[in-house]
Write a structure and sequence with these properties.
Blueprint (H helix, E strand, L loop, with lengths): L4 E4 L6 H12 L2 E4 H11 L13 H12 L2 H16 L2 E4 L3 H4 L4 E6 L2 H12 L3 H23 L12 E4 L5 H15 L1
Parallel strand pairs: 1-3, 1-4, 2-3, 4-5
Helix pairs in contact: 1-8, 2-4, 3-7, 6-7
Amino acid sequence: MTKSIVISGPPAVGKTTVAKGLAEEFQLQYVSGGDVLKEIAKEQGFDSDGDDWWDTDDGMKFLSQREQNSEFDKKLDKKLIELYNQGGMVITSYTLPWLIKDGIKIWLEGSHTSSTKRMQSRDNMSPEDAYKITKERFDKNKALYKKLYNFDFSDDTSVFDLIINTDDLSAQQVIDVAKETVRKLL
């Protein structure tokens, strides 16, 4: 397969799970935009290991640095565009769908309540902490991308081939809907 797929959506909506499911189904390479950004954080002296690093004080501190210095995000997006254009990738990214022209773009949406529950379960944290972190990450990223690229993250979904509301679906159901769409768009 020469096309690439990008999965986007708010924090803790299931992007990684769906992306890995599609990568396995279509024998594509999975790339996490968040992992690439964590490598950039490492270059800045952060110990960014662990899947839940973004939800830590250090992860939020790096997010604050990104708000002050757009070079981190520009470097990330340049790298993701290069990978995407190689083809044969499934990439999770907040920004990539608005920055590329072709390929397959899938938006996962869900209520803040659902994202909170996912994060609470996934990262073993209290409901209050999960709510606070998902809300803060969403709000800060939305403002950052508006300032950096002038698009309305989560409000402008016109660039997507498919929008899946994950609230009342299991992870496997979301993956199945995404697979069906990808098969049609190949």
